[in-house]
Specification:
98 residues, 5-stranded antiparallel β-sheet
Length: 98
């Protein structure tokens, strides 16, 4: 897992991972300049299932999502790539950060 404070803002993360922030939607747009404090990714983490259980407490849609960002305010943002529609960003409720 990446160390806290090395992931940049949500805007930077989206831009660095192959998408454009144009069209992220009205619910995600206000979050773009918040820092990412944790990346939860099925590709990059051995303990993904443990973190996924914690993320589900936020009520976020986890089906078909394999990458999530936890922002500095506790908001959870999922990344879902749909071949027919492009990227979507489901949101979960804020988690309490320790």
């Amino acid at each position: 897992m990446n160390e806290p404070n090395t992931l940049g803002t949500l805007r930077e993360w989206i831009n660095n991972n192959g998408d454009d922030v144009f069209g992220v939607g009205k619910t995600v747009e206000p979050l773009l300049d918040l820092k990412v404090v944790r990346e939860v990714s099925s590709v990059r983490m051995d303990d993904y299932d443990e973190y996924l259980a914690e993320l589900r407490k936020s009520g976020i849609k986890t089906r078909n999502c394999h990458c999530f960002m936890v922002l500095e305010n506790g908001q959870v943002v999922g990344f879902n790539e749909n071949p027919s529609r492009g990227w979507t960003y489901p949101l979960g409720k804020k988690l309490k950060l320790s």
